């Protein structure tokens, strides 16, 4: 069939078929690459957005909580001394504002009527405010009174102008053993200054930022900062928790995903139009797959297939180079007991550590491969019988040194069997089989020796 095809020449139908096949393959590869790149880009953007939101959240929570912590002293004082006057309130409020510049003003409303505001200048309009008559603020105040806990409100427009986040907390005092309601304390935080201090902007570092949860209502609350569309499909979202409420902050990339997808597809189609680009891409994918097929995924060392390839290659070169090689089969003793005692995760970590220890004591020209389970094979070009015998002894000594894995001290040993090409055999399979057989012989001998030592150390029992 091949000869007939070549003799008949390549007609238009053949060209169209090849082009169609290339287009199909190109489309599949394009969508695959675009999908992978899109997924990777989304992961990166998600990590960036998460880091950005975490920083904003930490700053915002720190600022708000520090203000509320400082205000706790004033509330405790009023609760302890309900008959105190505004002169004492003034001194405590002055200290709070001095320590917390974000505090716009502090208000005290005995019986829900604002009687004290610090600083008074610029806030005169708030004096005399009866919360019960203010339909915008009374629901939040009433909820705080009923719950007996602090309630966050806002951001909202203040009577004295501007925007503020208000933390309202009912104040109670005890008299004759009974709890009585004194009134309400309001700590007003400058909303704009708070956002600036926390580094929060509607668009920053390539992301659109939005916050929802007006009046501390969290996920179900109204969006009060940024565009509500950000919450449709955010790449990152976090809760910000405050005493008396919480907000939810979200981020999405400034540039929509569609623009990047179009750009990636255009790039892929340009690469597809150039046949060389397609060939390079296929070659790189092939090389990656080939590399993976020759590597042990757990230890990162070569696998048996890779080692066999290199062994055959060295054997084929021997008639020209005169350089032989040694094969060492290394079996880890007592590995099964480690798996049974500590689990397969510790066992895997032990294999990785053992491979690392072996690699550190090998030459750059050597090939260390995992043969499966707890067995390794070491290929050493240009090594004779005398040298390999010393190396086998050295490896067994290395493996006796305890391993420290995840806080556990593990004791294992190794049994090493070896064979030399061409001294033991000029056939690769025979060398491999001989090394494997000697390793198992060595393993049986060591077990027998260990049993003998154990029996010798056991105390005699008198009958």
TrEMBL record:
What the entry lists under InterPro entries is as follows: CHASE_dom, CHASE_sf, DGC-Regulatory_Protein, GGDEF_dom, Nucleotide_cyclase, Rev_trsase/Diguanyl_cyclase
| PROSITE patterns tied to this protein | CHASE (PS50839), GGDEF (PS50887)
The principal localisation class reads membrane
> Which SUPFAM superfamilies does the UniProt record give?
Nucleotide cyclase (SSF55073)
Give me the segments passing through the membrane: 15-37, 266-286
Keywords of the record, alphabetical order, are: Membrane, Transmembrane, Transmembrane helix
Ranges of residues in domain CHASE: 113-250
Pfam families reported in the protein's UniProt record = CHASE, GGDEF
Which positions make up the signal peptide? none
- Protein's cellular compartments: Membrane
Task: Name all GGDEF domain ranges.
Answer: 323-452
Q: NCBIfam families under this entry?
A: GGDEF (TIGR00254)
Q: What is this protein called?
A: Diguanylate cyclase (GGDEF) domain-containing protein
Q: Which organism is it from?
A: Marinobacterium sediminicola
